[in-house]
Amino acid sequence: MIWNEEMECMGSEDLKNIQSERLRQIVDYVYNNCQAYKNKLNACGISPRKIKTICDINKLPFTTKEDLRDAYPFGLFSTASKNITEIHVSSGTTGNPTVVGYTKEDLELWSEVMARVLALSGAEPKDKIQIAYGYGLFTGGLGFHYGSLKMGLTIIPASSGQTKRQLKMMHDFKPRILACTPSYCLYMAEEAREMKLDLKKSSWEIGIFGAEPWSESMRKEIESTWDMLATDVYGLSEIIGPGVAQECQHKKGLHIFSDVFYPEVINPKTAKPVRDGEDGELVITTLTKQGLALLRYRTRDIVSIKYQRCRCGRTSPRISKIRGRTDDMIIIRGINVFPSQIEHVLLGIEGTKPHYQLVVDRKAGELDELEVLVEVEEKIFSDEVKALRNLEEKIRKEIESTLGIFVKVKLVEPRFIERSEGKAKRVIDKRII
Ligand code: DLL
Fold this sequence. Notes:
Layout: H1 5-8, H2 12-33, H3 35-43, H4 65-70, E1 86-90, E2 98-102, H5 104-121, E3 128-131, H6 139-151, E4 154-156, H7 163-173, E5 177-180, H8 182-194, E6 206-210, H9 216-226, E7 229-236, E8 241-247, E9 254-256, E10 261-266, E11 280-286, E12 297-303, E13 305-306, E14 318-319, E15 324-325, E16 330-332, E17 335-337, H10 339-347, E18 352-362, E19 368-376, H11 378-381, H12 385-403, E20 408-412, E21 427-429
Parallel strand pairs: 3-4, 3-5, 5-6, 6-7, 18-21, 19-20
Antiparallel strand pairs: 1-2, 7-8, 8-9, 9-14, 10-11, 11-12, 12-15, 13-14, 16-17, 18-19
Helix pairs in contact: 2-3, 5-6, 7-8, 8-9, 10-12
The protein binds 5'-O-[hydroxy(phenylacetyl)phosphoryl]adenosine.
5'-O-[hydroxy(phenylacetyl)phosphoryl]adenosine binds at residues 90, 133, 139-140, 210-213, 232-237, 241-242, 299, 301, 322, 325.
């Protein structure tokens, strides 16, 4: 099922025409409705008349997270407060949170793109969906809620947490679709085993997982544990929340809804476009949003992009699974390390669990040190010391050969690493830089 065939399967010339028309309108709209953007565009000598086609997009300045923080709370909104129907907040680690506002039309757009997400995953009207993303200021719960309403699904608005209750609802109500973070899905598996549930007999057939990076190996782990299809959903509050891109059942990249969210991929250092298929930072322009319209927003997420038509029939460009964030990437002695690379190694080694944490430290006068804490299965943890040492050594060697740097590995007992019902915390950086 294709939710919006006209938009999702359009030929490239028609799509370009629509994008060009929408870009002209949105630049004109922000220029005339948002003082901060007017100043920004004036400072670069750009008047809306200079933007004629989508190819002119590179004349526009970038917008960054700092711009949003500086304009806290509503300074980048392009409409009066009275037109804002809903507000969400994305909490960062430092400073002011990022505030995003939706008009009625924006909520309609959100419902539309989330219905596309659901259709891409394989959901059909009348399926039951268990939404175990947090409801509230986080965009996950309500984003899925609006899309499910639009598509006509039966919604179980479970929100995140209360894991035993989640599992009971799954068992008793038999939803076909599960939406939550991938790490929470694995956490639920641990609880389900303790409750002596037969995981293979769960009612979930399709999972829609996102909000945090997760590797292909983690996908395999989830699919084999629950006997379900695990698909990847991407989004960020600043752009709309979940609903920016989603995998279809072929799982060959995430279809990005480029008729409304125009993607570019740039080299994060030089800000120049990378070649198709090369990794870089994803930059998005919202082509139709009204409350918070953003021009060339630097997401900090690392992806590659390809433009070929997919076997599912859609023509929308596809982004790769998100490799990590430019600011989640840890640089250790000059080498870029993404947590997902370590996750991939760990999941390929028998006896370890996909629960890990990277601790980075720098003692005075010494080089940076990376310690990887890895949970191991109960039976291994109670093994003799020698077996544990051997496993530690094996993990260390494999990580070192993947990353090309020295690491310390510490095996820890099951459940040592704190579980999260939302986004998992993979990196603890103790360096004072
Ligand atoms: O996480 C929106 C969302 C909710 C997406 C539910 C998917 C599902 P924020 O809290 O603003 O919004 O965080 C956005 O999370 O810039 C990425 O770094 C990361 N992220 C989101 N989806 C994925 C994904 C929501 N599928 C930030 N893979 C983004 C990797 C993801 N990282």
